[in-house]
Amino acid sequence: MLTPAFHYDILKPYVWLMADSVRVMLDKWEELISQDSHLEIFGHVSMMTLDTIMKCAFSHQSSVQTDRWRMGAACLTKDLHAEVDTFMFEGHDTTASGISWILYALAAHPVHQQRCLEEIQSLLGDGASITWMGFGFRDHLDQMPYTTMCIKEALRLYPPAPRVSRELSKPFTFPDGRSLPRGIIIGLSFYALHHNPKVWLNPEVFDLSLFAPGSARHSHAFLPLSGGPRDCIGKQFAMTELKVAMALTLLRFELAPDPSRVPAPIPRIVLKSKNGIYLCLRKLL
User: How do beta strands 185-189 and 253-257 pair?
Assistant: First the structure.
């Protein structure tokens, strides 16, 4: 019933809201790097995606990025929380994880970062003339093939939802004859799938050829947002937000990894780093 609400054309008007939330985050980053160019980004990105979902899903002009605690008291009351818990999680934590790891992947691969920047500039200019109403994005989000390949390869290496679990509603028998009974909880590791050398050639290498046009793979080899009848209803929303955040960030900053603090992926409900995700930022504009 809800799926039509997430159609690509219906999501287009929300692009300016996404862009506005990203702008607030990037403005904060400019202030912070004037003191130190090393920045832990996951917390900032998480507040930005929370700001975005509050605006897009609930028409709430939050101050979460500038006043986190006031936002928590004014908005996330018990009744509202009970109604929107699922949307808040799926539209906030997973997207924050995806954006943070994508930015880290590009920081670690400057050649790909530069190619993405050139592609984005060819569509949107240098960023100075972009209207924050987002109209510059709405007609170009599906015209970023190189950027899209980078996003997908980063999501392969760092899937935002690294695992899911299901309770079997009926017994299940594997092709080799082994079986599982009804009622058992099974876990599916998307992280393990994406790093499986039997599925991917050199799975630990950042390799865009895996998503180049014409590349062949099993339909369920790549599941950053699940798949099948229970795939993520907001996957188009998420991909749109990823592209907006990535484009605006690259137009504003050059990204580099912090060699003294290499992130260590740790699978929780979403994929995080047990020591944070630190980047070195250099302002471009």
Answer: unpaired
Number of CB atoms found within 10 A of residue 163's CB: 16
Which contiguous run of DSSP H or E holds residue 267? strand 265-267
Phi and psi, residue 129, nearest 5°: -100, 5
CA distance linking residue 70 with residue 219, whole number of Å: 45
**Is 232 known to sit in a ligand binding site?**
yes
Amino acid at 164: V
* pLDDT tens, residue by residue, 74-116: 445 765 555 556 666 666 788 999 999 999 999 999 999 999 9
pLDDT tens by residue, 216-253: 888 899 999 888 777 777 788 888 999 999 999 999 99
Residue-range domains of the chain with CATH = 3-158+233-283 (1.10.630.10)
Q: Which of 58, 46, 88, 99 is nearest to 240 (CA)?
A: 99
Give the sign of the dihedral formed by CA 39, CA 40, CA 45, CA 51: negative
Q: 253: which DSSP letter?
A: E
Distance between CA 32 and CA 61 in Å, rounded? 24
